[in-house]
Amino acid sequence: MGTPTRRPRVCVLALMPLLTVTIEAASRPGDTEVHVHAGGQGPWLARMAHSLGVDVVLCGPFGGENGALVEHLVREEGIVVRATPGRGTGAYVHDRREGDRDELASVRPVTLDRHELDDLYSATLVEALEADVLVLTGDDAGLVPASFLGRIAGDARAAGITVVSDLSGDQAAAVADVEGTILKMSHSELAEGGFASGTEVEELVEGARGLLRRGAAVVMVSRADEPSLAVTGDRVVEVSVPDVSPADHRGAGDSMTAGISVGLARGDALEDALRLGAAAGVLNATRHGLGTGGGDDVDRLAGHVTVTPRD
């Protein structure tokens, strides 16, 4: 008997998993629905990657009642969880009954101490070394120093693992300094982080090239409703998706990163991985669930994504 073929494997570092509670208007007038999910950039990205047919392991700190619930919810989706100790996982409650998100309450996660950082680093490194792609997601609560992400990216790259990041600010800079990394950022993150002088195409391209000079191999720039840009050492391409009516833009960028990561884990050419990422992002935008809308639909939609070289 031959050796069973191993499925592609993606490791996702989730620095800030969240418990999310969303109140929605039901289809019957006057009724209300309450949805409880695992949220945050890491779980959203992992959810989309898993739906695209690869094995996914999510590494992150989980603590307190919120952490126990989030860990359980992620496992219920078929995603492997490598949980490390944390003293308090964050949460939010959103009311969408009027259409827009109205935040009713939120709890910030607790900053990790040295021992918790060490545990998270060790667990992530071990899981990354057994994956095809390591995806780094960030946090907006200062849970870990930027150097933590630079170190884990450097160790993974030294072992030949593909590293994809969806970060901003100092965290993005730390990963850009590692040779051969793949960065996904939004146009506003490039400008606000001081990497680009503005949000015009040429300014974004020059900003992306600056990140390439630091060490990155590819910089993918999402631009809201405009075609995304992908910049490498010798090419600049625009990635265009079909026009759709969005239900919720939140999570689309995370889904784009997930699609790119899955494509690379499958061994797709970069251009095909970009198509898959763009398709995952736009399909997510048509849905209310963050990080949802995967499977065969994304692969089919990728056939309608165009990649055009810029002069």
What's the arrangement of secondary structure elements?
Blueprint: E1 9-13, E2 18-25, E3 32-39, H1 41-51, E4 55-62, H2 64-76, E5 80-85, E6 90-95, E7 102-107, H3 114-129, E8 133-137, H4 146-158, E9 162-166, H5 169-176, E10 182-186, H6 187-192, H7 201-214, E11 218-223, E12 226-231, E13 236-240, H8 252-266, H9 270-285, H10 296-302, E14 306-309
Parallel strand pairs: 1-4, 1-8, 2-6, 4-5, 8-9, 9-10, 10-11
Antiparallel strand pairs: 2-3, 6-7, 11-12, 12-13, 13-14
Helix pairs in contact: 1-8, 3-4, 4-5, 8-9, 9-10
Read across the widest sheet, the strand sequence of neighbours is 5-4-1-8-9-10-11-12-13-14
CATH class: Alpha Beta
Strand content: 25-35%
Low-confidence stretches: none
* Assembly state of the chains shown: single chain
Radius of gyration, in Å, reads 19 Å
Tell me the number of strands. Answer: 14
Protein name: Phosphofructokinase
GO molecular function: ATP binding; kinase activity; phosphotransferase activity, alcohol group as acceptor
Organism: Sanguibacter suaedae
InterPro entries: PfkB_dom, Ribokinase-like, Tagatose/fructose_Pkinase
